[in-house]
TrEMBL record, chain C:
<feature type="transmembrane region" description="Helical">
    <location>
        <begin position="223"/>
        <end position="249"/>
    </location>
</feature>
<dbReference type="InterPro" id="IPR035906">
    <property type="entry name" value="MetI-like_sf"/>
</dbReference>
<keyword id="KW-1003">Cell membrane</keyword>
<keyword id="KW-0472">Membrane</keyword>
<dbReference type="InterPro" id="IPR000515">
    <property type="entry name" value="MetI-like"/>
</dbReference>
<feature type="transmembrane region" description="Helical">
    <location>
        <begin position="177"/>
        <end position="203"/>
    </location>
</feature>
<feature type="transmembrane region" description="Helical">
    <location>
        <begin position="91"/>
        <end position="111"/>
    </location>
</feature>
<protein>
    <recommendedName>
        <fullName>ABC transmembrane type-1 domain-containing protein</fullName>
    </recommendedName>
</protein>
<dbReference type="GO" id="GO:0005886">
    <property type="term" value="C:plasma membrane"/>
</dbReference>
<comment type="similarity">
    <text>Belongs to the binding-protein-dependent transport system permease family.</text>
</comment>
<keyword id="KW-0813">Transport</keyword>
<keyword id="KW-0812">Transmembrane</keyword>
<dbReference type="GO" id="GO:0055085">
    <property type="term" value="P:transmembrane transport"/>
</dbReference>
<feature type="transmembrane region" description="Helical">
    <location>
        <begin position="123"/>
        <end position="142"/>
    </location>
</feature>
<keyword id="KW-1133">Transmembrane helix</keyword>
<feature type="transmembrane region" description="Helical">
    <location>
        <begin position="47"/>
        <end position="70"/>
    </location>
</feature>
<feature type="domain" description="ABC transmembrane type-1">
    <location>
        <begin position="45"/>
        <end position="242"/>
    </location>
</feature>
C-alpha cells in the first residue's frame, strides 16, 4: 500500500482518445497516457516533465477530473475519483484547483479581476458580497498584487500579473492540491523566477501540494521534490531532481536536459 | 436612410389626413405630388399611399423584429447547447439545421402558411423558426473553441455546472456576435416577409404591407409606375439601411476588439 | 368524393398510405385536374430547371470573371466599387428587382418580353433578375477568399519569383477558392430550384414553384406534396453531382 500521506495517487492510469479516421477503416484509438503510476505526498511538489504531446496535460486533466481515465484509477485522499457522486464531486472541486499555461486564456476577458477571483466563492456560496470582496483583497495581497487591481480587466494586466491572478483565484477555495499545467511556461525568465518563488512561499505558508507540469527541466529543478519524466504517454524515469539531473538514465532525459538553454556551456 | 424610415414610421401617423382605409374612388390612381392631401398619391381604390406606406413599413419592421428575436433566441440556445455538450445532441441539432438550410425558406413557409394559416403572430413565429440556423452555426463554432479555453476549464474545475458556464461565460462572450448577425437578419426577414406578402401568403389585407402594395401596383405598371416605385423605394431604404448599419456595427466592433 | 380521396381515414393512415404510394412513384392525383400530380409536376420541371441552371451558370461565371478582374486591377477602388454594387443589389429583393426590370425593359423600352416562356428572349429578364443576385453572392465569396490568399506565403513567393500576377491569380488563387465555394454553390443551386417560386410568379414562368403556389391557393395538396418531393429529389441529385465533382477537382479526395 502506498502511504496514507498521499494527496493523490495514480494507479495504472491510461487514457485513450477515439481517433476520427476515413470511413471503412478501423479506428485505432490513440493512447495519450499509458499505465501511469505515481503518488503525490501531502505538502510536496511532484513534477511531470516531457516533450510537447507526451501526455502531461492529459494527466493533469485526469487529476482535475476534467477527463476520466480509460483504465486505472486516480485516487484523491484515499477515494477513487470514479466513485464520486455529484455532491462529492462538488466537494472535490473545492479541494483541487488548476492554474493553466496561457495567461491570456485563463481569465474571462469580460470579467474584472475581482469577479474572476470571486467566482469560485460564488459557486460554492461562501460568504456574502462583502466578505467575498474582503477575501478577494486578501488573496490579491497573498499573490503580491495591489488590491486596486480588483476592478481591472485582464487586458490591462501583464502576463505575470495575470498568472498571479490565476493563482489567487485557484487559492480562493483554500484547496489542498493545486495542479499547475505549464503555469510559468509562457512567462519570461525573470517573471518565471518570481512566480516560482511565490509558489514556494505559498506552499510553506498554506501547506499546499503541487502537481507541477512542465516541459522545462530547469524550472522543474527549482521547485519540485520528485520528478517523473514522460515520453509518449509513459513514465520512463523517476527520481529526485538531483538524480535526474546528475545521473539521467534515459537518452530521452538527456535530450531534455540538453534542451535547457545554456546547458552546453555549463558542461 | 434609416432616418427617412424613422420619419415614415414615427412622424407620418401624426400628420393631418393620416388615413389608411378610406376609399375614394373619384380620386383613385393619383400620381405623387399632385394633391397636397395625398402627397404620394392614391392607389386603385383611392386610398392614401403615404399613410398605407407608413403602416406597411411599421408592420414589416414589427414582424421582422419579432421574428429575429425568436430566431436569435432559438439559434443561440441551439448553438450553445450543441457547442458545449457536443456528442449526439450536437450531431442531431446540426443535422436538423443542415436539412433546414437545404429547403428553400420561401417554399417551406408557403407550405407552412398553407397548412397553418397566416395570422400575424403565427407568421412571426414561423418566420422566426425558419431562420435560426445561421445563429446556431455561428454560436456553435464560437462555443466549440471557447469551451476549450482555460477560463472555462477553470470554472468547471471550481465546480461550475454546464448551465453556469453557458450562462455566465459562453453567452456573454457570443452575445455581441449574435447582435451583429441579428441586425443583418432583420433585412433578410423583411425580404422574405415582403416576398410572402407579394404572393398573397403573408400579411393579409386590409392590413397594408409592402409586398402586397407592390403586387397591386404591378397591374398599373404602365400608367402609374409610382404605385410600385414608392413601396419599392421603402423596401430598399429599410433593407439597405439595416445592411449599412449592421456592416458598420460589425466593423466598429472588430476594430474596438483588436 | 370523400371516400375516393380517403379523407375518412385517420391522419396517420392517410400519411402512411401517402408514403407507401410515394415509394411506388404514385404521389396521388391532382384534386382539380384529376390527373397524376407527379405528371403535372414533372411537366413543369424543365422550365424550372432551365431557369435555375442558366441563372446560376451566368451568375457563377460572371462572378469569377469580375472577381479575377478585381484582383488583377491595380486600383483597390475597383474592388470596393464592385462590392458596394453587390451590397446594393442584395438590398433589393429578387421579385422587386424583376418588376423593376420589367418596367424598364418591357414597359418603357418595349425591348423584351415580360411574361411567360415563349422564346429565347423570354429568358433574358428572369435570368438577369436571378443571376445578378447570384453574382453578388459569389463575388463576395471569391473576394473574401482572394483577400486571404493574397497575403499568403505561396502567393508572395510566386510573385517574388516573377510569376506574372494573372498567372498567380488564375492558376493558384482561383483553384484554391473554387473548392470550398463549390460546396456552398451545390447547396445553393439545390435551394435555387425550389426557391424561384416568387420569381416565377413575377414573370408568369411555367415552373414548379408557381405550380406549388397554385396548389396551395387552390388547396390542391397532392400537387403540393408531389412538388415538394420532386424538389427534394432534385436537391439530393444535385448534391450528389457536386460531391462527385469535388472528388474530381480535389486531389486530396479519392473515391474509395
Ligand atoms: N481531447 C483529445 N482528443 C484527441 N486527442 C487528444 C485530446 N487531448 C489530447 N490529445 C492528444 O494526446 C496527446 C497528448 O496531449 P497532451 O496531454 O496535451 O500533451 P502535453 O501536455 O504533454 O503537450 C497529444 O498527441 C494530443 O494530440
Ligand atoms: Mg500541455
Amino acid at each position: 500500500m502506498i502511504g496514507v500521506g498521499n494527496v493523490v495517487e495514480l494507479r495504472g492510469v491510461t487514457k485513450k482518445f477515439p481517433v476520427r479516421s476515413a470511413p471503412f477503416r478501423k479506428a485505432e484509438p490513440f493512447t495519450a497516457v499509458s499505465d501511469a503510476t505515481f503518488s503525490l505526498p501531502r505538502g510536496k511538489t511532484v513534477a511531470v516533465v516531457g516533450e510537447s504531446g507526451s501526455g502531461k496535460s492529459t494527466t493533469a486533466r485526469m487529476v482535475l477530473k476534467l477527463e476520466d481515465p480509460t483504465r486505472g484509477q486516480v485516487v484523491f485522499d484515499g477515494v477513487d475519483l470514479a466513485t464520486l457522486d455529484r455532491r462529492e464531486l462538488f466537494e472535490f472541486r473545492r479541494r483541487v484547483q488548476p492554474v493553466f499555461q496561457n495567461p491570456y486564456g485563463s481569465l474571462d476577458a469580460r470579467y474584472t479581476v475581482g469577479r474572476s477571483i470571486a467566482e469560485p466563492l460564488q459557486l460554492h456560496r461562501i460568504g456574502t458580497r462583502a466578505t467575498q470582496d474582503a477575501r478577494v483583497n486578501e488573496l490579491l495581497d497573498q499573490v503580491a498584487l495591489p488590491t486596486a487591481l480588483a476592478s481591472r480587466l485582464p487586458h490591462e494586466l501583464s502576463g505575470g500579473q495575470r498568472q498571479r491572478v490565476a493563482i489567487a483565484r485557484a487559492l480562493a477555495l483554500s484547496p489542498e492540491l493545486v495542479v499547475l499545467d505549464e503555469a510559468v511556461s509562457a512567462l519570461d525568465v525573470i517573471v518565471q523566477a518570481q512566480i516560482l518563488e511565490l509558489l514556494a512561499e505559498l506552499q510553506a505558508e498554506l501547506g499546499l501540494s503541487y502537481l507541477f507540469i512542465s516541459h522545462d527541466l530547469a524550472v522543474v529543478r527549482m521547485i519540485s521534490h520528485e520528478v517523473h519524466v514522460m515520453q509518449h504517454g509513459r513514465i520512463v524515469e523517476s527520481g529526485t531532481p538531483d538524480t535526474i539531473f546528475d545521473q539521467p538514465q534515459q537518452e530521452y532525459t538527456r535530450a531534455l536536459l540538453a534542451a535547457i538553454p545554456g546547458s552546453e556551456i555549463a558542461r | 436612410m434609416l432616418a427617412i424610415v424613422a420619419v415614415l414610421v414615427l412622424v407620418v401617423p401624426f400628420l393631418p389626413g393620416f388615413d389608411t382605409d378610406t376609399q375614394d374612388l373619384g380620386d383613385n390612381l393619383l400620381a405623387p405630388l399632385q394633391n397636397p392631401a395625398h402627397l404620394l398619391g392614391t392607389d386603385a381604390l383611392g386610398r392614401d399611399i403615404l399613410s398605407r406606406l407608413s403602416v406597411a413599413v411599421r408592420v414589416s419592421l414589427l414582424v421582422a423584429f419579432g421574428a429575429v428575436l425568436i430566431s436569435a433566441l432559438v439559434g443561440t440556445s441551439v448553438g450553445l447547447t450543441a457547442g458545449y455538450f457536443r456528442g449526439r445532441i450536437d450531431t442531431v441539432l446540426m443535422s436538423i439545421g443542415d436539412i433546414q438550410l437545404a429547403i428553400p425558406v420561401v417554399l417551406l413557409l408557403i407550405v407552412l402558411v398553407a397548412t397553418l394559416g397566416s395570422r400575424p403572430l403565427l407568421l412571426v413565429v414561423l418566420l422566426g423558426l425558419t431562420d435560426w440556423v445561421g445563429y446556431g452555426r455561428v454560436v456553435r463554432s464560437m462555443v466549440v473553441s471557447l469551451r476549450e479555453q482555460e477560463f472555462v476549464q477553470a470554472a468547471r474545475s471550481a465546480g461550475a455546472s454546464g448551465f453556469w458556464v453557458i450562462r455566465k461565460h459562453l453567452l456573454p462572450n457570443v452575445l455581441s456576435q449574435v447582435v451583429i448577425l441579428a441586425a443583418f437578419e432583420i433585412g433578410v426577414v423583411v425580404t422574405i416577409e415582403s416576398s410572402l406578402s407579394f404572393i398573397g401568403l403573408g400579411i393579409q389585407p386590409p392590413t397594408p404591407s409592402l409586398g402586397l402594395m407592390i403586387n397591386e401596383g404591378q397591374r398599373y405598371l404602365q400608367s402609374n409606375p409610382s404605385l410600385v416605385f414608392v413601396p419599392a423605394l421603402a423596401i430598399f431604404l429599410v433593407i439597405g439601411g439595416i445592411q449599412f448599419l449592421s456592416q458598420n456595427v460589425g466593423v466598429r466592433r472588430s476594430r474596438s476588439t483588436t | 368524393m370523400r371516400t375516393s380521396l380517403g379523407l375518412n381515414d385517420s391522419l396517420a393512415g392517410q400519411y402512411g398510405r401517402f408514403l407507401v404510394d410515394a415509394v411506388h412513384g404514385d404521389l396521388g392525383n391532382s384534386i382539380r385536374q384529376s390527373t397524376s400530380s407527379l405528371a403535372l409536376v414533372l411537366q413543369r420541371l424543365p422550365a424550372a430547371l432551365q431557369l435555375a441552371f442558366i441563372s446560376f451558370a451566368v451568375g457563377f461565371v460572371l462572378a469569377i470573371v469580375l472577381a479575377v478582374a478585381g484582383e488583377l486591377s491595380t486600383r483597390p477602388r475597383v474592388r470596393t466599387a464592385m462590392l458596394s454594387i453587390a451590397t446594393v443589389r442584395q438590398a433589393i429583393p429578387p421579385y422587386l428587382f424583376g418588376i423593376l426590370l420589367i418596367l424598364v425593359f418591357s414597359v418603357w423600352a418595349g425591348l423584351l418580353p415580360a411574361l411567360g416562356m415563349n422564346s429565347a428572349l423570354s429568358f433574358v429578364l428572369p435570368v438577369a433578375t436571378v443571376s445578378t443576385f447570384e453574382i453578388a453572392l459569389y463575388l463576395r465569396l471569391f473576394n473574401a477568399s482572394f483577400a486571404e490568399s493574397r497575403r499568403s506565403d505561396y502567393v508572395r513567393t510566386a510573385l517574388a519569383k516573377g510569376v506574372p500576377h494573372s498567372r498567380v491569380v488564375i492558376r493558384h488563387q482561383l483553384p484554391n477558392a473554387l473548392l470550398p465555394i463549390i460546396t456552398v454553390a451545390g447547396i445553393n443551386l439545390g435551394v435555387l430550384v425550389g426557391g424561384l417560386v416568387v420569381i416565377e410568379m413575377v414573370f408568369n414562368w411555367p415552373g414548379l414553384g408557381r405550380l406549388i403556389i397554385e396548389g396551395v391557393t387552390q388547396r390542391d395538396y397532392p400537387i403540393v406534396q408531389a412538388g415538394v418531393v420532386v424538389i427534394a429529389v432534385v436537391f439530393i441529385v444535385i448534391n450528389f453531382i457536386v460531391d462527385l465533382l469535388y472528388a474530381v477537382l480535389d486531389p486530396r479526395v479519392r473515391l474509395a
